[in-house]
Design brief:
The chain has five helices and no strands. By secondary structure, the chain is mostly helical.
Length: 150
């Protein structure tokens, strides 16, 4: 079993070196760690660079997932973490690259609410009002208050 594991790790290291060489123009820019950072990068990135990154990731995705699937999400080896983050970014940028860029030439829907304005809740039960709430988040709450008073 140890010989098999050593063989897999050796192959993984070789593949990682080749993969990182293919992605060197895009990393670490297209491997943000948080959903908020990924969204910000997607909104501010050059559409052509998004397409180029996406096409490389689509070609490599099965091989990357074959490696990453061996680990629980919170135990991905450090050397693979940047690639794991890039996979998440690619998944979140898939619709913008495949659907929206070809049609409108932009990485977001033209008539959609900008999700960067959405309020993040700390838990399902989080209903405390905060000063940082966006205008969009305040409107439904104000309507609910008016309806309850009526």
């Amino acid at each position: 079993m140890d010989a098999r594991r050593a063989g897999l790790e050796s192959r993984d290291s070789e593949y990682l070196a080749v993969l990182l060489q293919r992605l060197e123009r895009f990393l670490p820019e297209f491997a943000p760690e948080t959903p908020e950072e990924r969204q910000e990068v997607r909104h501010n990135s050059d559409p052509q660079r998004l397409k180029e990154f996406h096409s490389i990731m689509v070609e490599e995705l099965d091989s990357i997932l074959a490696v990453l699937d061996r680990y629980p999400p919170d135990q991905v080896p450090d050397e693979w973490q940047q690639v794991a983050n890039a996979v998440l970014f690619m998944a979140e940028a898939d619709s913008p690259v495949v659907k929206w860029l070809p049609r409108w030439g932009i990485p977001e829907l033209p008539d959609a609410l900008d999700p960067r304005h959405f309020e993040l809740k700390r838990s399902f039960y989080d209903s405390t009002e905060a000063e940082q709430r966006t205008r969009m988040a305040q409107q439904p709450r104000a309507r609910a208050r008016q309806e309850s008073r009526a």
